[in-house]
Structure to design on (630 residues):
C-alpha cells in the first residue's frame, strides 16, 4: 500500500508542474506583453515601460519567472488581479470553498440517485423500469447546465412562484444550493447509473451469487452483502472523477444562479481578460481534479488488494 | 475485407454471408431510439444546409424599431435585442453548431488516432512524451481549458493571421470568421485529441501482439504497411464508437464556449451565444433563452440516442441497453 502511495505521488508532482507550466506559458505569452496590457491606453514612455517590466520581474529569463511563479503559487500568492487590484490568492480563497461545497452536495446527490437508479436498472434488466431509467439518464445528460438552469429558474420563479430569484451563497444545506447542485449533477448522472447498472448486472450473474441463492439467503441480503460490496468499487472511481470534473462544470451553474464561487470568478475574469485570475483558477481546478484522481487510486488500492502490486 | 470473404466462398447462400458491418447495420436499424436520434440529426443537417435559404428573414438583419418583440405571425419566435428575427437566427445557428462540431470531431479524432498509432507502435520515449502530454491535458477541466485557450490565444492568432493576410494579399485570411473558427477549432481539438489517442494506443498495444501482425512482420512488411493496412482497419470499430458517442459532446462544447463568450463571436448566430446574450433577461423574455436552449438540447439528445445505438450495434456483447 505504501509502495502504491509513493508511486502515485511520484507521478503527481511532475503532472502538477506540467499543468502549471502549460497554463503559465499560455497566459503570460499568449495574450502579449502583460505590461502593455496593464498600461493599455495610458502609455507614458519607453522608460516607464522598462521600469514596470523590471518591477514585475518580466526582464528575467522564462524558467526563472516560471520557478518564481510556481514557488509563490505554492504559498498561495498568484499575483494581483488586473481589474480589481486585489490579491488573486484571496479571491480564490473566498471562492473555492463555496464551489467545493456545491460540488460535494452535487456528488452526494448523484451518489444516492445514480446508485439507486443503477441498482433498479440492473434488477429489472431490459424491462420497462430499466428502459425508462436509461431514457431519463440520456435526457439529463443531454440538457446542458446553462440550458437546465434557466428552465429551472423560469419554472420555479415565474410559473410556480415558490422561489425568489436566487443570488449569493446561502450555505451548503439551503434549498438554493440543493437546486443548483441538482443542475450541476444532471450531466454526470448518466455515467454513474450506467456504471452501477453494468457492474451490478455482471455480479448478479456470477456463480457465487447463485451459491448464495442456493443456500437460501434472502434477495435483500444477497444484494447488500454479496453484490453491492463488489459492484460499487468501479462506481466509486466514476464518482471521484465526476467530483473532479464538476468543479469545471460549476462555471455554468454559478453564473446562472449568481453563486460567488470559483466558476463565477472564472466567468467574470474571462469577460475582462483578467489573466492572473484565469491562470490561478485554471491551475487550482486542475489541481482539484488531480487530487481526486490520487484519492480514487489510493482508495481503490485499499478496496482491491490486486491494484497494490 | 467483406468482398474477399464473399469471393472465397461463392457457393454460400446470401443469408449465411452476414458480414460484421452488415450485421451491425441491421442491429442499428432495429434500435428504435437510434432511429429517432438519427431522424433528429438528419432534420438538423437539413436545417444546416438549407436553413439560410428557407428562413423567412436574413438572420443578421437588424430592425431597431422592433426590438425584443413577443412571438407574432410575422416573427414566430419574436425578435431579439437588436430587432433580428429570432426564428431565422435559430435556423442559422444549426449550421454553426454542426460545422464546428463536425470539424472539431474530425480534427481531434484524426490527430488522436495518428498520435495514438505512432505512440503505441514506436513505444520508448516517443510513447512516453505523447502520453505525458495527454496526461497533462486530461488533468484540466475540458471546458475551462478550452475557454482558457480561446481567451489567451485569440489575440496572437489574430495578429499572425492579419499579417499573413497582408503578406499574401488574401483578405479572407484576416477576416473575423476565419479567426473565430481557427481559434475555436484549435482550442477544442487540443482538448479533444488526448482521449482518442489513449483509446487507439491501448487498441494498438493489444493488436500488435496478435498473430496476423506477427505474420506480416515475419514476411518483412514495413512498419507503415503494418500500421495502416493491418492495425488501423482493425481499430475502426472503437474509433467509430468514440466518434459517435462524442459528437453530442462536441455540439455541447461549441455552445458552451459561445455561452462563456469566447466561442464563435457575434453576429455569427450560435445558440450558446444567444443564451448568453439573453440570460440576464430571462424574467422578461424567457423564450429568448428557452428556445435556443431547447433546440440545442434536442440536437444533443438526437446525437446521444444515435451514438448509443451505434455503440450497441458495433459492440453487441458489451451492450449498454
Amino acid at each position: 500500500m505504501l509502495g502504491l502511495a509513493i508511486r502515485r505521488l511520484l507521478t503527481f508532482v511532475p503532472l502538477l508542474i506540467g499543468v502549471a507550466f502549460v497554463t503559465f506559458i499560455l497566459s503570460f505569452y499568449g495574450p502579449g506583453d502583460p505590461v502593455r496590457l496593464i498600461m493599455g491606453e495610458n502609455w507614458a514612455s519607453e522608460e516607464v515601460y522598462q521600469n514596470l517590466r523590471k518591477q514585475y520581474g518580466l526582464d528575467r529569463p522564462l524558467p526563472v519567472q516560471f520557478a518564481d511563479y510556481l514557488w509563490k503559487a505554492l504559498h498561495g500568492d498568484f499575483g494581483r488581479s488586473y481589474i480589481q487590484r486585489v490579491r488573486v490568492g484571496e479571491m480564490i480563497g473566498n471562492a473555492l470553498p463555496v464551489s467545493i461545497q456545491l460540488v460535494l452536495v452535487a456528488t452526494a446527490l448523484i451518489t444516492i440517485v445514480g446508485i439507486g437508479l443503477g441498482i433498479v436498472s440492473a434488477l429489472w434488466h431490459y424491462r420497462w423500469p430499466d428502459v425508462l431509467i436509461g431514457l431519463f439518464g440520456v435526457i439529463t445528460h443531454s440538457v446542458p447546465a446553462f440550458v437546465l438552469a434557466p428552465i429551472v429558474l423560469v419554472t420555479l420563479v415565474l410559473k410556480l412562484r415558490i422561489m425568489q430569484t436566487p443570488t449569493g451563497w446561502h450555505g451548503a444545506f439551503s434549498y438554493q444550493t440543493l437546486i443548483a447542485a441538482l443542475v450541476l449533477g444532471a450531466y454526470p448522472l448518466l455515467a454513474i447509473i450506467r456504471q452501477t447498472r453494468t457492474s451490478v448486472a455482471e455480479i448478479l450473474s456470477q456463480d457465487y451469487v447463485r451459491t448464495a441463492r442456493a443456500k437460501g439467503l434472502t434477495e435483500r441480503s444477497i444484494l447488500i452483502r454479496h453484490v453491492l460490496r463488489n459492484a460499487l468499487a468501479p462506481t466509486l472511481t466514476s464518482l471521484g472523477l465526476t467530483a473532479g470534473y464538476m468543479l469545471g462544470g460549476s462555471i455554468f451553474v454559478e453564473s446562472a444562479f449568481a453563486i460567488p464561487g470559483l466558476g463565477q470568478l472564472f466567468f467574470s475574469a474571462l469577460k475582462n481578460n483578467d489573466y492572473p485570475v484565469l491562470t490561478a483558477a485554471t491551475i487550482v481546478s486542475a489541481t482539484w481534479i488531480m487530487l481526486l484522481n490520487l484519492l480514487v487510486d489510493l482508495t481503490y488500492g485499499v478496496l482491491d488488494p490486486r491494484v497494490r502490486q | 475485407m467483406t468482398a474477399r470473404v464473399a469471393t472465397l466462398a461463392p457457393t454460400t447462400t446470401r443469408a449465411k454471408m452476414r458480414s460484421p458491418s452488415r450485421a451491425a447495420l441491421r442491429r442499428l436499424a432495429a434500435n428504435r431510439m437510434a432511429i429517432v436520434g438519427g431522424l433528429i440529426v438528419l432534420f438538423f443537417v437539413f436545417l444546416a444546409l438549407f436553413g439560410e435559404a428557407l428562413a423567412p428573414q436574413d438572420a443578421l438583419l437588424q430592425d431597431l424599431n422592433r426590438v425584443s418583440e413577443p412571438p407574432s405571425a410575422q416573427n414566430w419566435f419574436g425578435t431579439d435585442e437588436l430587432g433580428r428575427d429570432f426564428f431565422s437566427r435559430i435556423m442559422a445557428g444549426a449550421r454553426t453548431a454542426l460545422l464546428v462540431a463536425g470539424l472539431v470531431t474530425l480534427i481531434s479524432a484524426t490527430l488522436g488516432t495518428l498520435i495514438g498509432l505512432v505512440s503505441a507502435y514506436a513505444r520508448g520515449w516517443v510513447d512516453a512524451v505523447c502520453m505525458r502530454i495527454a496526461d497533462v491535458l486530461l488533468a484540466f477541466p475540458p471546458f475551462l481549458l478550452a475557454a482558457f485557450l480561446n481567451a489567451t490565444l485569440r489575440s496572437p492568432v489574430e495578429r499572425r493571421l492579419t499579417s499573413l493576410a497582408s503578406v499574401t494579399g488574401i483578405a479572407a485570411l484576416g477576416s473575423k470568421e476565419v479567426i473565430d473558427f481557427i481559434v475555436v477549432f484549435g482550442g477544442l481539438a487540443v482538448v479533444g485529441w488526448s482521449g482518442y489517442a489513449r483509446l487507439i494506443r491501448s487498441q494498438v498495444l493489444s493488436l500488435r501482439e496478435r498473430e496476423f501482425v506477427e505474420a506480416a512482420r515475419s514476411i518483412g512488411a514495413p512498419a507503415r504497411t503494418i500500421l495502416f493496412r493491418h492495425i488501423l482497419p482493425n481499430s475502426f470499430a472503437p474509433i467509430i464508437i468514440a466518434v459517435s458517442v462524442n459528437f453530442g459532446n462536441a455540439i455541447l462544447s461549441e455552445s458552451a464556449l459561445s455561452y462563456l463568450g469566447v466561442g464563435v463571436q457575434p453576429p455569427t448566430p450560435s445558440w450558446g451565444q444567444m443564451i448568453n446574450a439573453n440570460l440576464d433577461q430571462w424574467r422578461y423574455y424567457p423564450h429568448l433563452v428557452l428556445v435556443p436552449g431547447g433546440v440545442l438540447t434536442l440536437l444533443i439528445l438526437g446525437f446521444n440516442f444515435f451514438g448509443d445505438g451505434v455503440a450497441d450495434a458495433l459492440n453487441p456483447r458489451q451492450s449498454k441497453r
About this structure: DSSP finds twelve helices and no strands in chain A. Chain A touches chain B through 54 residues (CB under 8 Å). The longest helix of chain A spans residues 219-257. The radius of gyration of chain A is 24 Å.
